[in-house]
Amino acid sequence: MHAHFERHVYHRHSHETYSFGVTEAGAQAFTCRGAARTSAAGMVMAFNPEAPHDGQAALADGFTYRIVHIGPVLITDVLRDTADRQVGMPLFAEPVLEDAVLAAALRRLHAVLGESRLTQDEALHATVRALVGRGSTRPARTRSLPVGVRRARDLLEAAYAEDLRADDLAEAAGCSRFALHRAFVAAYGLAPSDYQRQLRLRAARRLLTEGHPPADAAAGAGFADQSHLTRWFKRYYGLTPGRFLTDNIPN
């Protein structure tokens, strides 16, 4: 994605991928890992998978940035080919990095995404190696989560399109609604309702990618209607489902 925003505010969300961005102009303010952050021109943003964050312009003139989302499987494939193997996936301890080399690598990767697969692969490998070597501090470790929280999450992931109630999640978790809400937010950084909405948005995005029209994607993902999907899709991804189709689906 390459975009300029002035008034758009990203709702708190996370990605199933690693997300790496370069701020080209202006500054973006966001919260991540319990602290306020700012990425100004030339800085790199590095989000681990499922790391909740929001985002908005820090200056009146807004900000311009490029961002690429790289799946964990691709990261693993690249690291498997290098001599610098590590146990577990890399973890980026700081979501904002001041590193001109990383910024240049990300710009290069973004620039070649429309070129040949071989060119893309070479840029991807070079960028991932640079990111892991210069910005990663240690492998990510799997967290041990309370059984009740995992059960509630499993229910949400299995039935995200259904109209679940707080009581349904509490029953699956074996605790009160209040206790589950508090434990869920502590574990994932999102309320169960936000987690469910994010699952629905990801499902809608998959359906759009498969060629389904927005109205069908909204219904299939559990949204009340197309306008409901459009409103939340723009808050999470910065563009409407129609624009997403135009930009991502070949004619």
TrEMBL record:
InterPro entries: AraC-bd (IPR003313), AraC_XylS_family_regulators (IPR050204), Homeodomain-like_sf (IPR009057), HTH-like (IPR037923), HTH_AraC (IPR018060). SUPFAM superfamilies: Homeodomain-like (SSF46689), Regulatory protein AraC (SSF51215). GO terms for molecular function: DNA-binding transcription factor activity; sequence-specific DNA binding. Residues 150-247 form the HTH araC/xylS-type domain. Keywords: DNA-binding, Transcription, Transcription regulation. The keyword Transcription regulation applies. It comes from the Bacteria. This is AraC family transcriptional regulator.
